[in-house]
Amino acid sequence: MPVFVFAQEDSSHVLASIDKYALYVEIDTERHNLRGEALLQVQILKDSVSRLQFMSESSINLLSVRDSANRRLETADEPSPSGRFHKEFSVALPDTLKRRGVLLLKVAFEAEFDDIAAHPSFIGPKEILLSANGIGAWWPVLSATTNPRPNQAAAVLLEVTAPSAFTIVSNGELDSIRTVGSKTTLRFVYKNRMPLQSCFLFCGSTEFSTRSIATADSSFRCSLYYTPGKFSSESAVILMQQLRDAHAFFSSMAIPDSGTDDVRVVVVGDDDGQGDWYSNGSLIVARNSSAYLSADSLAWTSPEENKCVHEIASFFGLASADSTHLFDEGWSEYLTAKFFLHQAVNNAEAQQRVRLGLLSRTLDFYPSQTLAQEHRPKKNEQAVLSRKGACVFLMLEYAIGEGAFDSVVAILYRSFKYVPISLPTFQQLCEESYGSPLDWFFREWIYQTGFPEFILSTECTQTNRGSYSLKVKISQRGDLFTTPVDVVFSNSVRSTTKRVFVERQDQKFEFILPFLPTKSELDPNYFVLRWVPRLRLLAHGRTSVSFRVFDKDIGNSEREANILLQLDPNNITGWNSIALFSLGKAAVIKGDLAKAEEYFRRASGLEASEPTQLYSVLSLVRLGNVLEMEGKRDEAVELYRLGAALAGRNTLYYDVALIEAQKYLRQRFISTDDFWYGEY
């Protein structure tokens, strides 16, 4: 995995930095808690610093902070600007400490976690997961008040003590193991300077089975840890083979390292909470994966569902040197798409699905935002900067030719594998390989607002020589974009492809064909990032969700949902369920439970199609939630049972609905505003 050089940042506001960080924790799986001590070697960077602010997860209770002489330092709670899931405290520094002085702190803490709640960390009698993700994570770190930069340290150590029955897996390198009585202590070390949130991810189980696979040259080893009763052997085989093949494919594009990539994939959870993915370095954790159940193998056969392949792609990542972040996530997404396109090299329909799926995931909001704008909703930022990146790289490959782009990729890995690359440098490399200026591409496809929509019209006449003259008009709606694009003419016997270069609002072309075409298609294989009518409709539904979740803007959320219903009144797309579901949630937030019932009932009765078919079954569960708010628990339970039965028929699509239905069959629903503002 590349070790990126951290850019030098303005340190004028940094009060202190961490030189060394060691974390010692002991897990009590019976009581679902842990006790720990963090040892920090902190360097003071400013004069007259009297206190340091720390941040931690809200479940953590601070026991004490001591210095190297074991003197207890004064601490005080601080208001946290980071939200209700995190809290802050400050530590008083000794008066004798001056600038560039070094202080050794011992921070003792304890935490109690609920293994049932949808929480990024849980500890149970049979399973453990402690995630490094999140602002404060599960250990104390310097807060943004003290250090606005990401916390990082040159020397990092993690020592975990847990019952010996547990198999513990971490993203650190295992340094030692010792067993005393019924407990085992494992020490993990991190050898490279890295952010603390790239460390301290670990999990364990008393029921793990292990399956391993390696490439022929042993340059890649992958181990899978899973519970056989929850994860099918068929899925294990498919997943291992895919990760091995993906690593080999990515290695063929990059300059191989001399070392060996050793990756651990862990599946934990029991379908009893929120599904999520965690990845830090060489460890990938799938929690409450949909691949537990009957549709197991399907979850690993598409780039949308198989996030493990994407995490392997991140090992071959490149970093952006500017604010666009085009490479940071976009390159991994590009590699993932390339792998699945390669897997489907002899299946045109499968390749088409991969490219259309990427377009759908990119165009999942409306209207779009420009990269140049300072303020962007989080959803739009993710889609533009991450998903658009993958489309941009695939389009460049299409525009300048696969061979020319492959030579650019070779240069990127030779010269920029460990050094972030800027867009001007990347453009220069592409132009040198292509042999012509590419200002038009970078100006429009990377920086310009919006995306194009093309309209194709044709007129065909027979010539005196028996051939056919085909007059073609391509029009663009909205913003003007420049791009090559394929036009495919076909009949039941043959087809031909003509590539044209569009650069105006309306352009006309004429072709002489030896056969009479019965079908004319513009970019049928989705090489060009563009709106198609169906995706515009889907974007309205997804934007309705985005306004509610990210902006808490119910008015615009309802407006976007109603636009979808107005444009597709007969549910031809099969996507109206997401709009009605969104309106149902909005009605609950507005206190109109009768209207919410109506929306959820309508959504649950609709024929639904991917990618929104989840909402038809999930609406049954939310209807049950509304009935419980009205004191009708018995009626709600019947709906939960029906929802669980329907979801169980295809868990790949309905995993969230199944988890939610099973949850409320066991426990009563308690309504909160945060719940109804949530995505599901």
Write a structural description:
The chain is an alpha+beta fold and 680 residues long. It folds into five domains: 16-205, Immunoglobulin-like (Sandwich), CATH 2.60.40; 209-314, Neutral Protease, domain 2; 330-446, no CATH class; 453-522; 533-677, Serine Threonine Protein Phosphatase 5, Tetratricopeptide repeat. The chain is 33% helix and 27% strand. It contains 16 helices and 28 strands. The strands form seven sheets. The protein has a seven-stranded mixed sheet with strand order 4-7-2-1-12-15-14, with no helix packed on it. A hairpin with a 5-residue loop joins strand 18 (209-214) and strand 19 (220-226). Helix 3 crosses helix 5 and helix 11 (576-589) packs antiparallel against helix 12. The protein is globular, with a radius of gyration of 28 Å. The model is unreliable at 1-10 and 367-383 (pLDDT under 50).
| Distance between the amino and carboxyl termini | 35 Å
Q: Write out the strand line-up for the largest beta sheet, numbering strands in chain order.
A: 4-7-2-1-12-15-14
Helix content: 25-40%
- Assess the beta-strand content as a share of residues: 25-35%
Question: CATH homologous superfamily of the largest domain?
Answer: tricorn interacting facor f3 domain
- The computed structural class is alpha+beta
Describe the SSE topology:
Elements: E1 16-28, E2 33-44, E3 51-57, E4 60-66, E5 75-78, E6 86-92, E7 102-112, E8 122-123, E9 127-130, E10 141-142, E11 152-153, E12 155-163, E13 167-170, E14 173-180, E15 183-190, E16 194-195, E17 202-205, E18 209-214, E19 220-226, H1 233-253, E20 261-268, E21 276-280, E22 283-287, H2 307-314, H3 330-343, H4 348-362, H5 378-400, H6 402-415, H7 423-434, H8 439-446, E23 453-462, E24 468-477, E25 483-490, E26 495-502, E27 506-513, E28 519-522, H9 533-551, H10 554-567, H11 576-589, H12 593-604, H13 614-629, H14 633-647, H15 651-666, H16 673-677
